[in-house]
C-alpha cells in the first residue's frame, strides 16, 4: 500500500507524511513533540529542512545548528545528522533524489 499523503510514526514522538515524490524531488512534513528526536543517521540524498513551527536543534557532522519558524538548514549528502525538538515543532523536509527507502508501494 502506498504511504503518500498518510501520516506514519517515525521515532517516538515523531510522525511524518510524504507530500510529494516526483522527478528527482521529494517533500515530506514531519511533526515533533517537545524533546522528540530524529536519531542520527546518514543517507546519500541532499536535504533541506524548513521549520514550519517551533524550534529545532540539528547536529550535522558534529556541528550544532538551531533553527526556528521560518528558517532552514541544509544537510549535505552522506552527512551524519540528527534533530531534536526544543518545543513542539514541525518541519518541511525536501530531498533529492527521492528517498525511495521511505516510500511504500502497492
Care to describe what's here?
- The protein has one domain (about 10-100): Jelly Rolls (Sandwich).
- The termini are close together.
- The protein is mainly beta.
- The chain contains no helices and 10 strands.
Sequence-ordered SSE layout with sheet pairings:
Blueprint: E1 8-9, E2 14-22, E3 25-32, E4 37-41, E5 46-53, E6 55-60, E7 63-68, E8 72-75, E9 81-85, E10 89-96
Antiparallel strand pairs: 1-2, 2-3, 3-10, 4-9, 5-8, 5-10, 6-7, 6-9
Uncertain regions: pLDDT < 50 for 5+ in a row?
none
Shape: globular
What is the number of helical segments per DSSP (H or I, 4+ residues)?
A: 0
- Kindly report the average pLDDT value: 95
List keywords for this structure.
mainly beta; six-stranded antiparallel β-sheet; 106 residues; Jelly Rolls; 0% helix; globular
Amino acid at each position: 500500500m502506498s504511504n503518500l499523503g498518510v501520516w506514519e510514526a517515525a521515532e517516538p514522538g515523531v510522525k511524518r507524511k510524504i507530500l510529494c515524490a516526483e522527478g528527482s524531488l521529494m517533500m515530506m512534513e514531519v511533526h515533533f513533540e517537545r524533546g522528540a528526536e530524529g536519531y542520527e543517521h546518514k543517507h546519500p540524498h541532499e536535504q533541506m529542512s524548513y521549520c514550519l513551527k517551533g524550534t529545532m536543534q540539528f547536529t550535522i557532522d558534529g556541528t550544532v545548528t538551531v533553527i526556528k519558524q521560518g528558517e532552514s538548514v541544509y544537510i549535505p549528502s552522506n552527512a551524519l545528522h540528527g534533530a531534536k525538538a526544543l518545543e513542539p515543532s514541525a518541519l518541511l523536509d525536501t530531498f533529492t533524489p527521492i528517498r525511495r527507502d521511505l516510500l511504500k508501494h502497492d
